[in-house]
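Step 1: inspect the first sequence and its tokens.
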Amino acid sequence: MLKKLTIALVLLLTCTTHVSAQYNRDYFFWVGRSRMMNNDYQDAIRVLNTLLRFDEEAYEGYFLRGIAKYNLDDLLGAEADFSTAIRLNPVYTQAYTYRAITRSRLGNYDDALQDFREAIELRPDLPGPYYSRGVTRLLNQQFDEAIADFDKFIRQETKVADAYICRGLSYLHLKDTVRAYENYDQAIRTNREYPNSYNRRGTLYLAQRRFDEAETDFNKAIACDSTYLLSYFNRALVYADTNRPMDALRDFDHVIRLDSTNSLTYFNRAMLRSQIGDYNRALEDYDKVALYSPGNVLVYYNRAHVRAQLGEIEQAIEDYSAAIRLYPDFANAYIYRGRLRTLMRDEKGARSDRDAAQRKIAAYRERLSDSTYSIYADTTQRFDKLLSFDNKFAGGSFDRIAGGQGGREQMRLLPLYKFTLTQPDTLPQQGGRYHPRRLEDFAKRIDNRYLTLTWRESTLPADSLVGLDRAYARALNTEEPSWIRLFERGITQGLIKQYTNAVNTYTAAIELNPSNPFLYLNRSTTRAEMIDFISSIDNSYQRITIDADPANRLQNASKRTYSYDEAEADLNKVLKLFPDFAYAYYNRANLKALAGDLPAAFEDYTKAIEQHPYFAEAYYNRGIVQIFMKDTRKGCLDLSKAGELGIAEAYEQLKRYAKTEE
């Protein structure tokens, strides 16, 4: 379960000693192991390839090569090599164990647990598989079962601090803090020089605001390892919470010396410097954060406050404007920008900002019971709280499958289809023609040369979109409202991220034309985009683990979740009105994938392809989903089809996940 599989176990392998007349088999094993001991995994693979070309039955060679691939993060290749070793030697206990570890990292917990069962049945006397299976169960949130496995491991191995830490974490997730403390205490007694034990217990003390005890533990962790970044960071939080900002700043300084690109530390240090009036240096830190996390709304919002304190009013207004561009429903940003515009004697701009803020606040208050509408429209909310080290500045989650599937965070779905406004003939075309008569009739009825149904971004400049939105608004004010004009304005409001207004505008259009499926389609997409955007900034205040300890990934369970139910309900309405509409199945599949229901997503992508056999994006996303469902071969076949139909992104994924010959 560690980043690198333990090489010591490799040295314990019992190698067969049959010597071939054609080559020195033992020599290649020795060289391969030596390369791995020196962390030269690529060279080790080259040596082992030579061995396996001469002896295709050398199961130990596949096993060693699997370990090398694992350490190079080629998890699929490692799994394949461990599987070959098991096929050649069905009683190879270590191969089952390491394949289970690999599958656990891939998020394939069911197959991993089956491998652990095989390993334990073969060698019930070995303690290692119990520990590894315990961590897998911990990651799979089977806390009671994880505790049972750690118990079995500890009966045989009483001197492994990490076993007590993991068992303590299991109890903590069962809300049994007494047992958690007992296990962290035992971990410390087991190895008094291991910093992670003190850091774990200190973190629990900190969560319970037992600051003196937390500080003592973080001090001990640092005494054990002066480069242990986590404890410096956590001790800074203790200092900040106990009104010792200068001590906190010294610890944040040390963290940055150890990790000069840690944007979270710059962010916290900037807030502390701002709180003590060191605005110039706070501004320097916010500049760093803006460089590393340019899409985070809080960076610009907080930096605007600092610039205002320094008298840089115009720059502060620019930062509030940047925050508003990222999130147009951010009432606080309008309020403070309006105050600064008053200072600049821009009464018209100030009045506009005050009016906008009041509209946002009113809309927020109407939806207080809806968790989708977040703290950013609440003028009582403060944004100067220091963030824990388990935090990271989150980007949009809409282009990721939800749930973080075991190390495949970079696998992205192509976005939802929607009607948008873009320059004609500027978007690449994929696949064959799919223009149902009903869709063509709708486009003719709208009669807008910019109207396009696509998943790609609009190519119209931002100022053009704002101008179009104002034009549609004027038309709606001067003529009898029509569903066509409301539909067009809903599109422009969505494109300039006025999501709440866009949804309301689509709703007004639907009231005038309730049997039109395409109005529901765009309202659905806008609702999903709004949820995604809000989650991307709201998650800045959620605990998302970045710790190297894999067991810490369970902190993700405490993340706030967002519901796509309303967006999916709109798509169900689309399909009721237009049962053969391929794009509605595609969009619904995306939402199901985001909600973690991958089998249902697979079914909807398949339905989309049945309606449109050349639907390149559906092949691509179905391929991604199948890879997540561990059917890599079929997933790669779908990606190959998507590439054939024109999706260039498919080949980037195939380079990573298609099976290659060594």
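Step 2: inspect the second sequence and its tokens, then contrast the two.
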Amino acid sequence: MGRNSMELLAPAGGPEALKAAVQSGADAVYLGAGSFSARAGAENFSFEELAEAVRYCHVYGVKVHCALNTLIKERELEAAAETAAAICRAGADAIIIQDIGLARHLREMLPDIELHASTQMTVTSIEGVRVLEEAGFDRVVLARELSLDEIKRIAEAARAEIEVFVHGAICMCYSGQCLMSSILGGRSGNRGRCAQPCRLGYTLLEDGKERGSAHILSPKDMALIRHLKELRDAGVSSLKIEGRLKSAEYVSAVTGIYRKYLDDIDAEVTKKDMAELKSAFSRSGFTDGYLTGRLGADMMSHDNPANNSGSVYTAEAKERASGKYVRKIPINIFASLREGGLLSVTAYDESGLCVSCVGNAVAEKALKKPLDAERLKEQLLKLGSTPFEAESAEAEIDEGITVPVKDINDTRRRLCAALEDELARRTPGRVKDIGFSYDAPAAPSAVYLTAEVMTEEQAEAVLRSGAVKRLYAPADICVKLGWYRGGTEIVTKTTDIFRPEKIHTEHVSVSSPAAMRYYGEKAVYGDFRLNVYNSRTAAALACHGLRSITLSPELNLHEIRDITDHFSGADVEVIGYGYLPLMIMKNCPVKAMGHCAKRGGSFSLRDREGLEFKALCGDGCRAVLLNSKPVYTADIIEKIVNSKINCVRLNFTVENSDNCGKIVSAYRDALDGKKAGPMRENTFTRGHFRRGVL
């Protein structure tokens, strides 16, 4: 895996950055090829460029990981599979995936290539790793929010390799769980098109009063350069540098410094090297807050969300980014020339790989100056324009003979080309001709209501209505509802980010594969955080016994119908009402601004357009940011029903009990065929039911 037990994995947004990564000491690179990459704004690679990139990397023994790590819509499944097949044929070493349905298909279709689970899958526990191991993943990229102890517990128990991010931009929201860019502008982070509204300025409001303005949702970049030994001891396999949107010089500078300290892992990081990292890219410094547990204001770049480093690079970093062969491959050369014979030259590297070439000119008696061993070696050592450098050279030559210098040079060039071919040689993985198999659509059935609540008062209002088949509530609220004996099913909504809980109901709602596995003996319902974008993901999850699956709120009605036409393994649910959670954050933005909801008060963030987004204090000080307006669809419920879903969920967060009752009644009446009026203009949204996302 390179010169240290941990792989150094560098970003390659384009060919120049790829070469910079290799020349700066990366053990592997990750890049986007074709479509479906989570950095759609990067230069990325055509399939022709990918084949060249793979060859270039493999000459140096550097692996290539291709990112196919976006959520895949139903009508894109075939194209995504074709992209994966092209990646495999190009000789890449691994594919990075977010969509679990696509991964399930690729594991069968491409049995030889490694599958890596993207950080977008929000894996925070060994339970999550276990699900992915069973699905055929060889490596799991953990969520960036984990502490060192959490990483260690996972790595020690995992069979799959564990990869963690060590440098670069971090998101305020758990990766894979952010809807902010999607809801506000139609550009989904789950599709590689995040517009970064989190980097804008906001004003913190407490009970409607201003408590300060800043870039409240803008964290500093991560830098774990001082923790490499701890990560090694924790059992981490791969260290990942973020930056597929950054320049070749940036990739060179950061990769070079991490290479230096991986090769001398006990060395103390110098001020000079930290200054070089900051000069390459910095948002007012760096943070290691998630790894060390030091959350709060120190993690944030409140004053300036942009790079304020000046992007200054050393001469060495610039040279490595120039495209030249700076990192040389050591070889040994042996040449033999006999009278009446052809020049024979052999080259071999430290691994024992050996190639030979012979010249085209017959050695003859020299009429003037004969060729001697030193002159022959001198010509053979002219390797400057190649990736090689000679550690030693030997030559045996008969006295008084010669061959044209042109023949020596030509033989040397062919020898180097042959050695490159041999170093780059890989047998591409198998590509099996396996198409997608789809379910027959489910038989039509009456659409029913479900509801999610946060408080006991909301729960009581919903239960009193008698109109809801299933109620999702937090564990502590479910305990308080033990008195209920009606027909509504009480379901414990487990934590959005998995942690084991004591559950008192027979039914649970799960937000992650980890929870799905952990609570598998109970009746399980899948929440929208499972990011179901297509029927194959729904089918993969249904295999674990899910009774219903809530589709991603990023889908429009046509895309929902595409799924229901191809899936019948469980009931299909959509969120028809509620303030959608835009972000779930481990580092509470309210607390980072010096306030706390636990001391009382209601907090929200106001943007530059005057919209207010409520911030709720959640499980373990995790904060949830709600959209400024609720999704409302009672007046267009017929269109929702025509998408052939089974149930409509009403999400209650900040509503009082009276509002909950009124909304349930409006939706029940709408499903019964009664006309429902719209909410007051500019007080609601249709979510993505009409527009969808890019």
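Step 3: confirm your contrast with the notes below.
The chain has a mean pLDDT of 95. DSSP finds 22 helices and 31 strands in the chain.
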